[in-house]
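Quick one, tokens below:
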């Protein structure tokens, strides 16, 4: 019983997930601190208030609605999402596009009429049985032209 549990815990994807959650929590704390320390006060300067809306309320029929806490959470969410997008998502996307190999278009293939092996359509000879493919059905005219040039 414990052997199966141990192998489950030590599986690569469980450990990777745990590391991702810990790093994500730490990164969230850093971004939230940045938003709270720098960006929320800037919004306060722009709107002419302190930047802390948590004490803002309105009253209806003697019941107090603390909308300021929601407003603070909403502003924090938008700012955190903005910081994450521009500081993480865009740069990582650019790095991935720079280091990802250029994806080549898949080669169109057809079956050799003699041995039925799959060969590229642009091939002049079959790589398996070495039969001449020039002018055969399913193979383009350029294959015919290239063999004519080779024989001249």
């Amino acid at each position: 019983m414990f052997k199966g549990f141990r192998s489950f815990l030590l599986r690569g994807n469980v450990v990777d997930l745990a590391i991702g959650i810990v790093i994500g929590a730490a990164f969230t704390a850093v971004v939230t601190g940045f938003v709270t320390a720098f960006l929320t006060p800037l919004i306060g300067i722009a709107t002419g208030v302190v930047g802390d809306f948590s004490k803002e309320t309105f009253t209806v029929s003697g019941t107090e609605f603390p909308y300021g806490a929601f407003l603070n959470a909403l502003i924090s969410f938008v700012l955190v999402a903005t910081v994450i997008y521009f500081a993480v998502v865009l740069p990582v996307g650019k790095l991935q596009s720079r280091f990802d190999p250029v994806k080549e278009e898949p080669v169109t293939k057809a079956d050799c009429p003699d041995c039925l092996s799959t060969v590229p359509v642009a091939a002049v000879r079959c790589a398996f049985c070495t039969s001449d493919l020039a002018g055969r059905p399913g193979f383009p005219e350029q294959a015919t032209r290239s063999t004519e040039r080779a024989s001249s």
